[in-house]
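Task 17 of the worksheet. Students: predict the tertiary structure of the chain below and write it out as structure tokens. Keep your answer in the requested format; marks are given for formatting as well as content.
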Amino acid sequence: MKRLLPFLLLFASLTLLLPIASAALSGGRGGSTDAFTALLPGGGGDAAQEAAQGDGADPLAGVTLLIYDSAAGAAKTVSMRDFLIGAAASEMPLSYQKEALKAQIVAAHSYALACRDAQQQSPDPALDGAWFAANPAAHEGYIPPDGLRALWGDRYEENYAALSALVDEVGGLVLYWEGAPALATYFALCNGTTESSEAVWGRALPYLVSVGSPLDLTSPDCEQTVTLSAQEVADRLKLTFYELKLEGDPAGWFPEPVRDAAGYVASVEIEGQTIKGTELREALGLRSADFTVAYDGAGQFTFTTRGYGHGVGLSQYGANAMAITGKGYAEILAHYYPGTTLAAG
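Model answer:
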């Protein structure tokens, strides 16, 4: 675990700048207000289920965490139960399968504890004592009960009870790697293959590696296009990459990129400067680092992206697709976080 600590600290600090995961697709953050139409039986396996339920006592009773509210600029104490319910509501549509939502709940729990451990070892002053940052007002990271009440209206009691029941099923479970909680990151949708933490953040974690997620390609939202004028592209890039001049014919601004094994843009050499694909994605406001660029010769760029989010860890759309095919939450988690162990926290 000690050799992974620098990366955990780095990632925890990144949460001040980036949400935990990309906005979930249709019905995720600020999405569907419909209650579950059904809570399907089946799931994560008898052993995992028994570990979560323990002796019948609530494993989350009295458990709290500290979250830095980036909008309020202060650390706030939140009950673990409210966080897990609010994280599921923020990150996934309520129309998603029960097993996908359970996988999301376990991932959020594991992520929070991994950030806690990192902060205990070496606190980040910017977090004001909190474990990680979120923006509840914008539905980024989690949504508190009062936010859920405003979002769901007269369906609040029904929806809250449905998510609370799922937390009861898996609330005591955490993903572990070498005896420590795993930094179980998650995102909305990939290009058919997830990314490794090394490719995105420059640090390798053995369970955050690239894995296949081919069912993501079935999403009608997987491929998207956005059009920007040459002036808009120049303005956005110069805000981040100060040395760029971007003069001359815009058709020559973006040469052929170098792609990684997962198909995402690893880097592009622009005016002799090598720029990471993840940096370009952020600077241009693109949904994914898997993108192509086309210039129409008349001042307009079209960027075509595949996927949505940083691409590391659990694909939320992929998890739901796996659940539809009959996979339980434990199998989903084992796929997206290979080598981790699911056990009571």
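Marker's comment: The longest strand covers residues 223-229. Residues 2-200+311-344 form one domain.
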